[in-house]
Amino acid sequence: MKLSGIHHCAIITANYARARHFYVTVLGCTVIQETFRKERNSYKLDLSIGDGGQIELFSFPNPPARLTQPEACGLRHLAFAVRDIASTVNELKDKGVETEPVRVDPITGKRFTFFRDPDDLPLELYEC
Asked: What region holds the VOC domain (predicted)?
């Protein structure tokens, strides 16, 4: 078996309108399809990321909160590849999104930083 890449990452939000604005307007993801699933009282928003990857953004009534920070068992964070981390960090700050200080990966020598989405989920920028 040979995997050819990551197709998508699924995220559940507590506030659909706020999360939609963040991923579409702030981060610049492109809407592929938006579906309201009446039987679940839930939205599913398919978003495209520049390299062909996708995010599935789900809303559910009263989803449980994330129990712990990224060190919990399970998905740790979602990382976005960027060409210029400094300009991306500045653009996020201009849009009111705070980031951690930029660090250097001691293994790869690449620069990276973390920030949070509106549901306090950990997101990473990784300079490629």
From this structure: 5-128
Q: Give the homologous superfamily in CATH for domain 74-128.
A: 2,3-Dihydroxybiphenyl 1,2-Dioxygenase, domain 1 (3.10.180.10)
Which pTM was predicted?
0.83
Segment 79-92 mean pLDDT: 95
Does the 7-62 domain belong in CATH 3.50.30.30?
A: no
Condensed to tens digits (0 to 9), the pLDDT of residues 61-84 reads 888 776 666 555 566 789 999 999
Burial of 11 (0-12, 13-18, 19+ CB in 10 A): buried
Q: Are 65 and 12 in contact (CB under 8 A)?
A: no
